[in-house]
Each structure stands twice: as C-alpha cells, then as structure tokens.
Amino acid sequence: MVPAVPFVIHNGPYLILDWRSEIGRLEGAYAPSTMRAYFADVEAFVFWCLEKSIPEPFPASVETVCRFLENQGTYLAPSTVRRRLHAIRKVHRLLHLPDPTCDEDINLAFRRFKRSKPIRPKQAKGLTRDCLIQFLESEPEAPWGLRNRAMLSLGYELLTRRSELVALQTEDIDARKEGTLRVLIRRGKWGLFGAGRTAFTSQRTSALVEEWLDWRGDNIKWLFCPIYQGKPIDRDLSTTTVKQIIKAAARRSGLDASGVNAFSGHSLRVGAAQDLLVRGYDTAAIMRAGGWKSLNVLTRYLEKAEHNVWA
Of 116, 141, 174, which residue sits at a domain end? Predict the structure, then answer.
C-alpha cells in the first residue's frame, strides 16, 4: 500500500490529500478495468517520485513529468506510457491542482519518445471462418462442448469483445421467425452509457445457441455460465474463459505452440472483420456490424486480412 502523500497547494497551506481516495471517486463512472489502470499508473508515478527523492509528486512539475515519461519509455510501449500520462492528468484534475500535462514540453517529450520506438501495435491472429469451423468441430460432445460451440459461433458473428460476450444475458437474445437471432449487446467500449448495439446471427449459430439453452435450462440469468459437476451455475464467466476456450480449441486442432499463442480472446472480433472485408462488404457495413466508431481502429483490424484486390 502507498501511504497518503502530502501535496502542496500553491498560495495556500499544506494539505494532506490521499490520491487513492480521490481516484475512488471515479467508481461507478468508469469501468472496473479503467479504475485498476488509474490506480496502477498513478502508483507507478508516485513510486518513481519517491525513488528520485521528489517529496511532492502532486502537483507535479512539467520537468518531473517529462523525466518520468523518458524513464518509462525505456521499457514500456508507447500506449502504456500514454495511459500513464492520462492517469497523471486525471489525478491532478481530481485534486483541483494545476495540470502540467497540457504543457507543450510534455507533448514534445512524448513525441520524441514515440519516434524513437516505432512499435506497431500487436494484433491478435484473426479467427476466420475456416478456423472457426475447425474449432467448432474439435469441441467434445459434452455440456461444455455445447456451450463452447455456441459461444465461439455467437462471438464470431456478433463481432464481440470478450467482455461483451460473457456479459450477455438470456434476455438479450430474441429469436426471429426466419430462424436467426437478434441480440442486444449491452456493454461496449464506447457504449457504456447507452442502450448498446443490436446485432444478428445466422441460422446455424441460432441452432447452436438453442441446443445449448435446451441443455442449460431456464431460470439462469447469464447466457453462458460455468458448468460444475455436470450442472449449470447461475453466474457469469470470466473474460479469461473466452481466451482459454479459443486456445484449447487451437491445440485440439493440431496447431503448434506458436500457432496457439497467436490467438487471443480478441481473435473472434478480428477474424470476423477480416472475413467481412474479403466477402466484399464496405467499411461502413463492417463498422456497423462490429460497433466501431473509429475508422483508424478498424483499419488496424483489417490490415492482415488475406484480401487480394487484384484476384
């Protein structure tokens, strides 16, 4: 635990403020993962200040923040350094202190560091339809095989993030008369305050979901749930479960260690987007299907698609 740190308020008395409790004020307004990131990043800055014998981390000087960014840039990715910069900015605003992160010297320090480390974002291997069919066929004829087949097929066709997939509830799916499903995806990176987005499935995926629900039974809130001693448990799955299911299917399909490691919980979303591109859908349709708001982000998903425009 990091002790409460004394902060100096200019033109006023010394006050004892605990940055942890200030970040705690964000609870309910931000996702738990964002809260954890703020805590970890501000803690890293405070520890660094203590190591450098800087007695008052807040309010930080422009020089201190620049030195911190340069230090972090020696072993962290640009995205992580940027995240820590944002955390420092947030805690200054929470404490009603002058914000040093808006100074142009901070911007220049970050740009120098970023240009010195031209690292491309790591992209998960896309779980495209050919891989999906292979993975589905590898699932055992057992209750967890029913669940996993429905999860993988649904996650692929809805282009969900793993957090969205495990957050689905039984009431979020609506059977349509043509044998498909209409699904409400409530939780999303950009839709935390809205009603979510709506997506649709094929008849094949609808049948897999129905087969799983027939075994799972009624009166369970979560669409996908754990199975313990052959019985469904009424609680949600962890996001890690999605990654584990994908990697286990990759191993059963005969992939070597490097092939297995290339897949992640994000592979369903990546692979489906790449398949839609190859099938001739334009970016507007793909963005609508996956709930993307930024064309730049979608472009990173599509750059490794096997799509030859000259074929």
Answer: 116
